[in-house]
Amino acid sequence: MRVSIAGAGLGGLALAQGLRGAGIEAAVYERDPAITARFQGYRLVLNPAGLEAVRGCLPSRWHPLLDAIVGDAYGERLILDPRLNTIGELGPGRTGTVVDRHVLRHLLLTGLTVHTGAALTGYGVLGEGKVDARFAQGDPVTSDLLVGADGVNSAVRATLAPRTAPTDTGVRFVIGRTTLTERFSGLSKAFGSKIAGDGVSLLLGAMRFRTPPKEAAERLAPEVTLPDVRDYVRWAMILPPNGSLGASTPQEAALSRMDGWHPELRALVEQSDPDNSTLLSIRVVEPGERWAPGPVTLLGDAIHATSPTGGNGANTALRDADLLRRCLIEAAEGRRDLVGAVGEYERQMFEYGAEAVQHSLDALPAYVPQP
Ligand SMILES: Cc1cc2nc3c(=O)[nH]c(=O)nc-3n(C[C@H](O)[C@H](O)[C@H](O)COP(=O)(O)OP(=O)(O)OC[C@H]3O[C@@H](n4cnc5c(N)ncnc54)[C@H](O)[C@@H]3O)c2cc1C
């Protein structure tokens, strides 16, 4: 069995690792010219099921490394004013494990065949259950299964489920990260909390690695090369509806809305890494339209993109990868046919994927700024 995967995000890479571990041929095609071509290094909270899914896809010899490069999620879950006075509570929230997306991606990439600069433009279903994936450059690639793990604007989805499209919530946010020094440790009350400003909300989260990733890889799995990343604070400022940066940098845009704020909060934004800050919009994809199972399927944000406020997009993409991996292993071992395996994956994925999107939309109002 040969599987082509469009998209080297967490979902596509986890699936490719899982298939590689089972001896199933899988190649990943990524549109970006390089894995590090754009900002991707934010912190993710993985729930126990998401972490288990990653473990399921990774060779067991790397499990100790995975345990070493994560951190424990914690947060005060308060609502604070810009001077850091407590004015309310966010209520029970997410506990779990924090992981840096950039670091996890590097672990997942190890040993895989990833073709970068390979933007999928479409596909054609051939006879005998095969599929041809087409790219902006280069020859088509024939395989038994094409998996669209190509994110919220999925080119695979555009053909497979053309009536399913992203919805823009209108919510925009600026995200950045700042090295977690002794000084910023003093802001711990604000970690996992919401700072409610004038028309904006600021959210902070700490990424404290149990072991610095590069050192952990050198010690626990020398065949893996991980980036040299130190502890940091991820900050995200949710802007008024449809907010934009204008001519400002992300940092300038955030600081322009922080007059009179606590000096340590301003310093945190001032000292952030300009290469790791950007403006993002919140768009969701609600899975609805079904198709007959065949040699093309979707996973992750390509079919169920959530709002980051739900904290479940990566968890769900990883769950997809692990589930599809298990279904495809059954097909490779002759316990079911390929179409039956893909159909079983889609049956389960559609149900929990729709729930994940709804959950994330329910969580959104607690974080968006009050007018
Ligand atoms: C700031 C922020 C915080 C978040 N926090 C959390 C959290 O705490 N917990 C959580 O569970 N989730 C969180 N999420 C959501 C999570 O990051 C995503 O749901 C998850 O990364 C989706 O993975 P994916 O593999 O489906 O897609 P993506 O990560 O979007 O990967 C898709 C890949 O496909 C590539 N691609 C696109 N088009 C093509 C094409 N035509 N051909 C080839 N390749 C293509 C893209 O370049 C990309 O590499 C957060 C998201 C953001 C933005």
Automatic annotation (TrEMBL):
Coiled-coil intervals: none
Gene3D superfamilies from the UniProt entry: FAD/NAD(P)-binding domain
Domain of life: Bacteria
Transmembrane feature ranges: none
Sorted UniProt keywords: FAD, Flavoprotein, Monooxygenase, Oxidoreductase
Record-annotated FAD-binding domain positions: 289-337
PANTHER family membership: FAD-BINDING DOMAIN-CONTAINING PROTEIN (PTHR47178:SF6), MONOOXYGENASE, FAD-BINDING (PTHR47178)
Protein's recorded name: FAD-dependent oxidoreductase
The organism of origin for this protein: Amycolatopsis speibonae
